[in-house]
Amino acid sequence: MVSLLDPEARGRVILVGAGPGDPGLLTLRAVEALKSADVVVHDGLIDMRVLDFAPAEAQRISVAKKRDRHTLSQDAINALIIAHVKAGSVVVRLKGGDPFVFGRGGEEVEAVRAAGLRVDVVPGVSSALGCAAEAMLPLTHRDWSSAVSFVAGTCQGLTEQNWAGLAGQGRTLVIYMGVTCSGLIADKLMADGVAPDMPVAVLERGTLEGSRAMRTLLADLGDMVQREKVVSPAIIVVGEVVMLSDAENRLHAFARQAEQMEIQR
């Protein structure tokens, strides 16, 4: 493999996973890639300190996406990357987590290859792995879970998705982008046979400042997200392994608060 710092390797894209937030979770190869950049095209869910690894003179372009509001369409992002590469630049496409886990990295690689250009990929610590580690939540465990699945929990097409068998005893389900639809997700899983008292955790802001890890039961998931005013970025973990985590027990805390309010009346 050609070194990412090879000065002769001009006009290419390096797709880089920035990890789940904390700059300390960048890989050495990700730092190497950033140091080689002429242009950094980055998402919004990265810690801006990561950009400090790029040369001061490197151009920094944000293509941040938020729900229902995209700075650029995916096609426009692809075109932007390709234009800079054709101009001879080393373009680092910096994406939160891992570029091939719900990061549209596959689409960008296809577009660059179709244009006849070189692309390298530097994997990153995925959001699920980073957030779970921060909360001391093992996604698999010899006694509790021998399988783990990752799904996108966006509202569009939720009812048509087949999640049968992805959650339940001995399995862990990790749901990305599910906060907005948390109540619908809980209803869907229970309708598919998952017990209402299955433990769930919501891991908000992962390894970023102000992170929170909260757990409750599946039947309370949507209500807890509303009570706690959870916002993205956050992931939802469903499974018995949740009880092994350091996540704060929000169901019991809420129940005690309600009981105290009743006593005061």
TrEMBL record:
The keyword Hydrolase does not apply. Coiled coil: none annotated. Keywords: Methyltransferase, Porphyrin biosynthesis, S-adenosyl-L-methionine, Transferase. GO terms for biological process: methylation; siroheme biosynthetic process. Its EC number is 2.1.1.107. The keyword Iron does not apply. It comes from the Bacteria. GO terms for molecular function: uroporphyrin-III C-methyltransferase activity. Pathway: Porphyrin-containing compound metabolism; siroheme biosynthesis; precorrin-2 from uroporphyrinogen III: step 1/1. Signal peptide: none annotated. Residues 12-221 form the Tetrapyrrole methylase domain. Belongs to the precorrin methyltransferase family. This is uroporphyrinogen-III C-methyltransferase. It comes from Sphingomonas crocodyli.
